[in-house]
Design brief:
mainly alpha, flat, about 500 residues, 3-stranded antiparallel sheet, 14 helices, single chain, 3-stranded mixed sheet
């Protein structure tokens, strides 16, 4: 019973608590609704007040804008009125100017008619004068004009030849003096040796028995060496020596190094030959790079592309008329730089162009074309400056030199090639040049005989005095010089001398 009582009391307490919570909640809800209604009414009043304020402010702003627009409109109307008055004044001025121009035009028209009338009168007088002159002289107008033109031509020709001769004499005297001074100074400051190289190399042997070992059984050793290097080995009766023959100097150097090492090692068989040739090729490549770097460092030429340095090194093994091309290039660079310093030109540009002027000869046996064209293409590929490219392009006269440095490089190239002992020429080429010189001179009218002397450096021409006068001799020299420059290729320069002799002979009886 006690437990039942506890349960009844618990249920009764829970019911009373529920009722109390419900009554309290309803009271709170009613209070919240009243507060919300109060807040809503207050917000509505505030919004209406703000609305009235905004409307009033907008009206004030509109009035201000209207006042400003009215003021701006009045100012623009005033400005338009001023512009209108100015246009009216200009229009009146243009009308007055138009009237003045019309009056001037009428005056000019009257003057033009007067001048035309006078012109007709002058033409009639001129025609009458010409007819009178034709009647007096007995010559027609065309005949008189032709005779006058002929006399003027002859006079101008004689005067031109005389002026040319005087100017050339004066210019030659001054130019030769300065050129000799500059060139002599440049050559004195440049001491370069000349090494005449051939197309063969000689390898010394310790004894003649080594020749048999080089040949090998059934010639297999010599065939292997010739195949790998592309160089011909000549084993003849020359005591204790083997001759290497080939036109590619780099391959010949590889063959020489490989053969010297094989002889020193003593083991000569195809496998060893292949190993030595490969090693010699690497050594030659290293020598090429070293020689190119040394040439650039010696001349203080900086910033060269690595491939151009390698090509410079290859020139050590290249010869032209027996002259080492790398030594020749270094000498040309020094001469061009010295002359540039004397005349105030760009020393660095002249030196750089002189060093690179024959770069095309490093690959001319591998690429089609002249060494000048090949060199220009190489320099363009490796982004050399236009000044260097133009100088190299013109150093053999293929194009006209456009810069002072281009002239200096061409002159330095000719000086280096023309030095005594610098180059060798074959007898056949030498004789052909002499024959061509005399043939060019004899082809001109009035030439009696010509003689090529001084190893082709000078040609003396005897002319017929009754056909060529003194002034004609000056013109003849210039024509022969131009013809030689166009048709011949030669190192240095060729002196052309025209000799005219008049003799008077009498006999006393």
């Amino acid at each position: 019973m006690q437990y039942v009582w506890y349960v009844v009391m618990l249920v009764l307490g829970a019911s009373i608590g529920y009722l109390l919570r419900r009554i309290i909640g309803e009271a709170k809800i009613a209070s919240a609704e009243t507060e919300a209604q109060r807040i809503l009414d207050q917000a509505i009043k505030t919004a209406e007040t703000k609305h009235r304020e905004i409307v009033l402010e907008a009206r004030d702003n509109a009035q201000k804008l209207r006042a400003e627009l009215d003021k701006e409109s009045r100012e623009r109307r005033l400005e338009l009125q001023r512009l209108e008055r100015r246009l009216i004044n200009k229009e009146e001025g243009l009308d007055r100017r138009q009237e003045s121009l019309s009056r001037k035009e009428e005056s000019l028209s009257r003057q033009e008619k007067s001048l035309a009338h006078k012109q007709r009168e002058l033409e009639e007088l001129h025609e009458m004068s010409i007819k009178e002159l034709e009647r007096i002289s007995g010559l027609s107008r065309e005949s008189a004009r032709e005779r006058i033109l002929q006399e003027v031509r002859e006079t101008l020709k004689a005067e031109t030849a005389r002026l040319i001769r005087d100017a050339e004499d004066q210019a030659k005297a001054e130019a030769e003096r300065k050129a000799r001074s500059i060139i002599a100074l440049a050559i004195q400051r440049c001491a370069a040796d000349h090494v005449a190289e051939n197309t063969v190399s000689v390898v010394e042997l310790p004894n003649d028995e080594m020749k048999g070992r080089i040949i090998g059984r059934e010639g297999r050793n010599i065939r292997t060496l010739e195949t790998l290097t592309g160089i011909e080995l000549i084993i003849d009766d020359t005591p204790e020596a083997v001759i290497l023959s080939g036109f590619d100097p780099i391959r010949r150097e590889v063959a020489r190094l490989a053969l010297e090492r094989l002889v020193a090692d003593g083991r000569i068989h195809p496998a060893r030959i292949e190993e030595m040739v490969e090693k010699a090729e690497k050594d030659v490549e290293a020598i090429i790079k070293q020689e190119g770097e040394q040439a650039a460092i010696r001349l203080s030429v900086h910033g060269l592309h690595p491939e151009l340095i390698k090509l410079l090194g290859r020139l050590k093994f290249r010869t032209s008329y027996g002259q080492n091309v790398l030594k020749h290039s270094v000498e040309v660079a020094q001469l061009a730089a010295n002359m540039a310093a004397e005349i105030g030109a760009d020393v660095n540009l002249a030196k750089r162009a002189g060093l690179l002027h024959d770069i095309g000869k490093a690959v001319d046996h591998e690429v089609e074309g002249s060494h000048v064209g090949i060199g220009v293409n190489l320099l363009k590929r490796y982004r050399e400056s236009q000044g260097v490219i133009k100088a190299i392009e013109a150093h053999h006269g293929d194009v006209e030199p456009q810069t002072v440095e281009a002239f200096l490089v061409a002159a330095a190239d000719a000086i280096s090639a023309a030095r005594p002992g610098a180059r060798r020429e074959t007898l056949e080429m030498y004789l052909k040049r002499l024959e061509k010189l005399e043939e060019i001179a004899n082809s001109f009218e009035g030439v009696e005989k010509s003689y090529a002397i001084q190893a082709g450096r000078e040609i003396r021409i005897m002319v017929k005095p009754e056909r060529i006068d003194d002034l004609g001799a000056v013109t003849l020299v210039r024509d022969i010089v131009n013809r030689i420059e166009k048709e011949l290729e030669y190192p240095g320069q060729i002196k052309v001398t025209v000799i005219r002799e008049t003799r008077a002979v009498g006999y006393a009886k």
